[in-house]
Specification:
With 250 residues, the chain is of the alpha/beta class. The chain is built from 12 helices and 8 strands. An 8-stranded parallel β-barrel has the order 1-2-3-4-5-6-7-8, surrounded by 6 helices. Strand 3, helix 3 and strand 4 form a beta-alpha-beta unit. Helix 1 packs parallel to helix 2, helix 1 runs parallel beside helix 12 and helix 7 crosses helix 9. It binds phosphoenolpyruvate. Phosphoenolpyruvate binds next to strand 8.
């Protein structure tokens, strides 16, 4: 059975003292959950977040990384650097990075390979624009993004990859995909994985939904058969609200 994962994406928010306070408040609210709780925090919070989350069930991730091992890439951080301080997860190819920082399917694929090489657990984002959705191209876009992200990844490694289906028109807009639409898109992604790796592996890959998830809509999304949890932006910035999403079954 696939585990449910609830991952927060803080984006460019939270100073270290705020991160520490957040984790201290969140911790008692999520101790009883069987779901995986992840906070993907800015680089400057990583060290503080890792220390504060020690001996809790809260896991810490980064929001980006570079695909090269080292070298003249001013301002960048490698997978090995993240791993060296015990970061466990990393978001790759978030739509904001694709839109504002020129990430492509090719860089996403290179980052994914480097993350896996250094034993980081990648959360790879795919999703369509409103224009593509209205043109009826959703499935084509997201299955192509999935295939290109996974190019050259073997069947053992693909099971370590978490995919987040995040329709771009739903991110930070307050508009959520209906549970049925999200399920349909995630089924299409799983079907694409099945084409490449076979049925058994496709059933084991964790696929999240992201896009204006909040405590009031998470249950109907997370109880769909193919949706294995969520990548949560805005609603991950407040501990009580985020804990309600983590504890969506209660
Ligand atoms: C995200 O940042 O991945 C996201 C889904 O944001 P929000 O929940 O705010 O739409």
């Amino acid at each position: 059975m696939r585990k449910k994962i609830i991952a927060g994406n803080w984006k460019m928010n939270m100073l270290p003292n705020e991160a520490i306070e957040f984790i201290q408040k969140l911790e008692p609210l999520v101790t009883d959950t069987n779901n995986e709780v992840i906070l993907c925090v800015p680089y400057t919070d990583l060290f503080y977040a890792l220390l504060t989350a020690q001996q809790t069930n809260i896991k810490i991730g980064a929001q980006n990384m570079h695909f090269e091992e080292k070298g003249a890439y001013t301002g960048e951080v490698s997978a090995e650097m993240l791993k060296s301080i015990n970061v466990e997860y990393v978001i790759i190819g978030h739509s904001e990075r694709r839109a504002y920082f020129a990430e492509t399917d090719e860089t996403v694929n290179k980052k994914l390979k480097s993350a896996l090489k250094h034993e980081l657990k990648p959360i790879v984002c795919v999703g369509e624009t409103l224009e593509s959705r209205e043109a009826g191209k959703t499935q084509k876009i997201i299955t192509t993004q999935t295939r290109l992200a996974l190019e050259g990844i073997n069947s053992e490694d693909v099971e370590k990859v978490i995919i987040a289906y995040e329709p771009i028109w739903a991110i930070g807009t307050g508009k959520t995909a209906t549970a049925e639409d999200a399920e349909e898109s995630i089924q299409a992604i799983r079907e694409e994985i099945k084409k490449i790796y076979g049925q058994e592996i496709s059933k084991r890959v964790i696929i999240l939904y992201g896009g204006s998830v909040k405590s009031s809509n998470c249950k109907e999304l997370f109880t769909m058969p193919d949706i294995d949890g969520g990548l949560v932006g805005g609603a991950s910035l407040e501990p009580i609200e985020f804990s309600k999403i983590v504890n969506y079954e209660k």
